[in-house]
Amino acid sequence: MEGSPGLKLNPHESTPREQGLLILVIIIFHAVGLIGLSVPSMRPLFLQIVPWHILLMLIVIVCSHRPMEGKFILFALLIFASSIILEWIGVHKNLIFGNYSYGPTLGLKVAQIPLIIGVNWFLLIYSAGVLMQRTRIRSILIRVIIGAIILVLLDLIIEPVAQHFDYWHWANNTVPLKNYLGWFLVSGVMLFVFEVFGFKKQGVVAPVLLLVQFVFFIVLLLLS
């Protein structure tokens, strides 16, 4: 099928229409979640929906990835499994991130670790990886470092919100510096793995998800 004159579609990216629809889903569901968590009477219901919201974002990201391939699934499983292991070490040994424990908001737990946290790690790493992939930065090392810094900045915003909404809690209600160092190192290693997998250049859906996450948690922080 021939395209419009002068219009060249990248077979490795979802179409602008597809990306637009997926971005619309991201914006609408984060906006609805923001309203629900901001209204005290609606908050208990919306806190129960948090794991399902994260799963919906997973579906959005899977739908946006082109071309769908085995190594993408392998990457997702690798990040999921490794993050669950790291979280187990963090919660049970107080290593890597510090002394913390998870509340009920993130849903089903195995050995005190909510399984959805592994999905969330994948979404964050993949989104930051695609964002860096779309820049003109040629150095893998610099892309990894900048991507890890971006995720640490996001965690700085998330931490007070997470404790307020019972995602997780820190001993003495104090977030240790160790947590941010751990985030930087873990994110850096996982972003390097993203680079090693060498995915074709992706669309803007994942970077938009990351941007919306920043806006979402900043607004919640201001309202909480």
Topology readout:
Layout: H1 16-38, H2 43-64, H3 70-93, E1 100-102, E2 109-110, E3 113-114, H4 116-133, H5 140-164, E4 168-170, H6 177-197, H7 205-223
Antiparallel strand pairs: 1-4, 2-3
What does this entry look like structurally?
The chain is mostly helical and 224 residues long. The protein has one domain (16-223). Helices cover 68% and strands 4% of the residues. The chain contains seven helices and four strands. Strands 1-4 form a two-stranded antiparallel sheet. Strands 2-3 form a two-stranded antiparallel ribbon. A hairpin with a 2-residue loop joins strand 2 (109-110) and strand 3. Helix 3 packs antiparallel against helix 6 (177-197). The N and C termini lie far apart (53 Å). Mean pLDDT is 94; it is low at 1-9.
Which range best describes the helical content: under 10%, 10-25%, 25-40%, 40-55%, 55-70% or over 70%?
A: 55-70%
Domain unit count: 1
Give the SSE order as H and E letters. Answer: HHHEEEHHEHH
* Major sheet: 2 strands, antiparallel
* Spatial sequence of strands, sheet with the most strands: 1-4
The chain-level mean pLDDT equals 94
Indicate the radius of gyration in whole angstroms: 18 Å
Strand content: under 5%
Instruction: Find the structural class using helix and strand composition.
Output: mainly alpha
Number of strands: 4
Number of helices: 7
The coarse overall form would be globular
State the end-to-end distance. 53 Å
Catalogue the unreliable spans: 1-9
